[in-house]
Specification:
mainly alpha, two-stranded antiparallel sheet, globular
């Protein structure tokens, strides 16, 4: 039922915020199964978003990326714009943690401009997600490049950004042994 799915979502959110990552993962997997079984297609993207956050917190980057991509696709299809912006901002944070600073800044610029055009002021969650992505990026990127990215982000359509994120892949650098997120050229 819808109530059962909501309780699973809340259980997962509480576990995630408490650092109980295994419990969060279990709750979000159950939440996803529940919304699929009950055909709550509006909430399926949200379930993938939460699952991606838990997987990312656990360092399971390949799975987190896949969950974020699925969330972004589903939320865009269902035109759930605010939820989509939250998923994109979480994806930007993941990009920043993998030192993909320029793409992370672009995602943040597009989401900020979209929120602005919609008349929304970003809430604490959006600000925290953007700060997590932009903090390291602002130190790693020169101000001129950052200004160019921000300017590009202000005019990049949200639909182009959604298509671009779908092409992201986790790639392991054989020489260094590190895993990085690969993206095609900016939209």
């Amino acid at each position: 039922t819808r109530v059962a799915a909501s309780l699973l979502q809340l259980r997962g959110l509480f576990a995630l915020s408490s650092g109980q990552l295994d419990d969060a993962l279990e709750a979000f997997n159950d939440f996803l199964r529940q919304v699929i079984e009950t055909h709550e297609t509006q909430r399926e993207g949200v379930a993938h978003f939460h699952l991606g956050k838990a997987l990312d917190a656990m360092g399971r980057s390949d799975e987190a990326l896949a969950s974020f991509q699925q969330a972004i696709r589903l939320l865009a299809e269902r035109q759930l714009t605010l939820e989509l912006l939250n998923a994109l901002e979480a994806f930007a944070g993941m990009l920043a943690r993998h030192s993909a600073y320029e793409p992370s800044c672009l995602v943040c610029a597009v989401t900020a401009a979209t929120r602005e055009r919609m008349g929304y002021r970003p809430g604490d969650q959006a600000n925290a997600a953007r700060s997590a992505a932009l903090g390291p990026a602002e130190q790693a990127i020169d101000s001129q490049t950052l200004a160019r990215i921000t300017g590009t982000g202000r005019v990049t359509p949200l639909t182009a950004l959604v298509g671009w994120t779908a092409a992201a892949e986790m790639r392991r650098d054989a020489a260094s042994g590190t895993t990085q997120i690969w993206l095609p050229a900016s939209p």
